[in-house]
Amino acid sequence: MSKVALITGVTGQDGAYLTELLLSKGYIVHGIKRRSSLFNTERIDHLYEDPHVTDPKFKLHYGDLTDSMNLTRITQEVQPDEIYNLAAMSHVQVSFEMPEYTANADGIGTLRILEAVRLLGLTEKTKIYQASTSELYGLVQAVPQSETTPFYPRSPYAVAKLYAYWITVNYREAYGMFASNGILFNHESPLRGETFVTRKITRAAAKIVLGLQDCLYMGNIDAQRDWGHAKDYVEAMYLILQQEASEDFVIATGVTTRVREFIRKTFAFLGVQLDFSGNEAEEVGVISSVDYSRLLELNIKTGSHLQTGSVVLKIDPRYYRPTEVELLIGDPTKSNEKLGWKPKHTLDTLIEDMASADLRLFQKDQLLLKEGFGVMNYFE
Ligand code: NDP
Ligand code: GDR
């Protein structure tokens, strides 16, 4: 008998990779997607099977973490062996603008899932994975951060996730449920949302080398993050639910890097060396040299606009956060030892994967524009 998984947040970065992983392991996967006025399933369209033609192994349900009845009905219908609660308003800066909604979806949403399982009498059957986050550590208490490091959240997002973390622990202890937190540090991929810092950088760098954008505007480029690849991190989610006992795990690489270094490496991968000059809000990124043979290798034909001395990066304080998380570096010892989990990607292979994908994306756009297929204007 195939195992049955229910994934909330199935249309997101991690939802897409996890669905692919579980289908490859023979699971039947049910995903919860939000109703939207435009298609929002781009990341999982390649996994979709037409229910008119086959008996699909991957099924989608409309739902929302703010709707208890909806979540309870879907859980009853699906009778999942495993629930992966990945849905969330996941953007830290946006959470300062939408604190109440973030608390409802990211905090109480987790409670709704746990209660659905409990009230339906599925506590013996259903294991729950909660998408916890390194943002819980917030203001640095100690480094590297492990399962025992105290939390000090620094945003409405992190405070909502703190509630979700502890309600998961509480349901495990109070009702004997298999409910585990994965405390995942930042993980990225070509599927990463466009407004998170890594994808913003790889998209902009690709556009700048192709001559489709002049300048990249950034916030705090001195923040340090422990970045991994989402493909490696969904493996850890799966492993956490395959354990004998329900426990919480830190998932991280153990290496931290400044945002400015991520920028420098991304441009260098694309054949452009950047120097930084000036201080804080006045700082700029300037092209110091261009490797034309690298541009040729990448099939970039429009290198002439890339002049030494050009400013391609400026600081825009609008991207500063009211309270910032300056330094994250995870200690993955427990997950290495107990789960046998180790990431396959390094920061360099992550950047290569993301920057190559964005380069291909915008080379396609450039070709379409050249052939006269510009953006459609529906209002003309
Ligand atoms: P994404 O932002 O890419 O995906 C979030 C998903 O949640 C999307 O499918 C989104 O739907 C859905 N969603 C948002 N609000 C609701 C709601 N109210 N009801 C139902 N679904 C909703 O995030 P990631 O894939 O990167 O992250 C997955 C989870 O892991 C999140 O909970 C995130 O907070 C957490 N996390 C992420 C880390 C990372 O570095 N990526 C690190 C640690 C934790 P739609 O597509 O319609 O917007
Ligand atoms: P983060 O990711 O807040 O760590 O949350 P993000 O990529 O948004 O920011 C990382 C760091 O980069 C700095 N930064 C900028 N960030 C963005 N988005 N845009 C900018 O222009 C910019 N300039 C500098 C930020 O200030 C920050 O220090 C992510 C999310 O996926 C969460 O859901 C998840 O829980 C954590 O990772 C772990």
Written account of the structure:
The protein has helices at residues 13-24, 68-78, 92-97, 99-119, 156-175, 197-210, 230-241, 259-269, 292-297, 333-339, 347-370, and strands spanning 4-8, 28-33, 58-62, 82-85, 127-133, 179-184, 187-188, 216-218, 224-225, 228-229, 249-251, 257-258, 272-277, 284-290, 311-315. With 380 residues, it is an alpha/beta fold. It has a 7-stranded parallel β-sheet with strand order 3-2-1-4-5-6-11, with helices on both faces. A 4-stranded mixed β-sheet has the order 8-15-14-13. A two-stranded parallel ribbon has the order 7-10. Helix 6 packs across helix 11 and helix 8 (259-269) packs across helix 11 (347-370). The longest helix has 24 residues, at 347-370. The structure holds NADPH dihydro-nicotinamide-adenine-dinucleotide phosphate and guanosine-5'-diphosphate-rhamnose (GDR). NADPH dihydro-nicotinamide-adenine-dinucleotide phosphate is lined by residues 8-9, 11-15, 34, 36, 40, 64-66, 86-90, 105, 131, 133, 184, 186-187, 193. NADPH dihydro-nicotinamide-adenine-dinucleotide phosphate (NDP) binds at residues 8-9, 11-15, 34, 36, 40, 64-66, 86-90, 105, 131, 133, 184, 186-187, 193. GO terms for molecular function: GDP-mannose 4,6-dehydratase activity. Its cofactor is NADP(+). Belongs to the NAD(P)-dependent epimerase/dehydratase family. GDP-mannose 4,6-dehydratase subfamily.
